[in-house]
Amino acid sequence: MSHVENDPIFDLNRLKEMRVELTRFMMAYKFACDEINTKINILSDEFNYIHDYNPIEHVKSRVKSPESIFKKVQRKGYDISLASIKENIRDIAGVRITCSFISDIYVLSEMLQNQGDIKVVELKDYIKNPKSNGYQSLHMIVEIPIFMSDRTVNTYVEIQIRTIAMDFWASLEHKIYYKYNKKIPEGLANELRNAALVAAELDRKMEWLQNEVSAFKEENGEDTGLAFLENGDIPAILLKTLSEYQKRIGHE
Questions:
Q1: Which whole-number Å values give the CA distances from 64 to 61, 84, 187, in the listed order?
Q2: Which residues contact 163 (CB under 8 A, 6 or more apart)?
Q3: Pick from 27, 43, 31, 63: which is nearest to 158 by CA?
Q4: 56 forms bridges with which residues in the sheet?
Q5: Does the CA dihedral 97-31-123-72 come out positive or negative?
Q6: Counting beta carbons within 10 angstroms of the beta carbon of residue 115, is it exposed (0 to 12), middle (13 to 18) or buried (19 or more)?
Q7: How far, in Å, CA of 248 to CA of 127, rounded?
Q8: Scanning 47, 156, 161, 214, which has its CA 20 to 30 A from the CA of 191?
Q9: Which pLDDT belongs to residue 227?
Q10: In angstroms, what CA-CA distances link 132 with 139, 140, 186, 193, 194?
Q11: 84-121, pLDDT tens digit by residue?
Q12: Which residues are registered as beta bridge partners of 58?
């Protein structure tokens, strides 16, 4: 080993370089979240302006902590290097979008996929094909360019799109999962699956009601539709139709 490599100044400089690289590595994911959030806000505002309707209820984003990343690297057995982490851990940056209705999920997904600088790397539809525990959501792994001062960094972002009911179920399931140290009793697991089916049925009912409201507005004019929505009074014909729908569902 050379004298230079044993020099404390050399070690300090190397340490500073590593810290800068790690900081820039993590910053890229923060900027990626910011970029996706900006795109979502633009698409949401445009959609609202054109259709007088906002398909998004709320948006949350997060970047995994270095500790969380390191634990996942150890658990998966990946190499501990920035290049390996970047390629193998694709959910460091995460954005979760909650929509009103199932149809909104696919509309928003398509709008994001149509963005010229977004590359869809992976798409998993857990709505059409729910997980065995009942979990439902649309997952997308996308890659977007982040323009730094001296480089362009193509960065992965995981996007989850789900309804309010799906998000509510997933949040509670997550809490129960960790309360039992990831080992949920079979009886409770069955109840959670049943609850997921109930949430899915609620989504279908609410979307059906939304379609009926839209049809009513078209038949009776925009002003009439807005009047009963603002007053909170659902027309009798809609209540009757909803009652008939519930009866029909009960017999299926």
A1: 10, 16, 33
A2: 98, 99, 100, 101, 102, 104, 105, 203
A3: 63
A4: 99
A5: negative
A6: middle
A7: 23
A8: 161
A9: 44
A10: 16, 19, 13, 8, 11
A11: 999 999 999 999 999 999 999 999 999 999 999 999 99
A12: 98
How is residue 139 written in tokens?
Answer: 């997952």
Q: Among 78, 198, 200, which Cα is nearest to 129's? A: 200
Tokens 């590359």 map to which residue? 119
- For tokens 């959030």, the residue is 37
146, 147, 153 from 150: Cα distances, Å: 11, 8, 10
pLDDT score at 137: 97
Phi, psi torsion values for 232, nearest 5 degrees? 80, 10
Based on the residue annotation, tell me whether 158 is a catalytic residue of this protein. yes
Tokens of 94: 């995460």
Here the tokens at position 187 are 């009886």
Q: Which entry of 17, 35, 87, 158 is annotated as an active-site residue?
A: 158
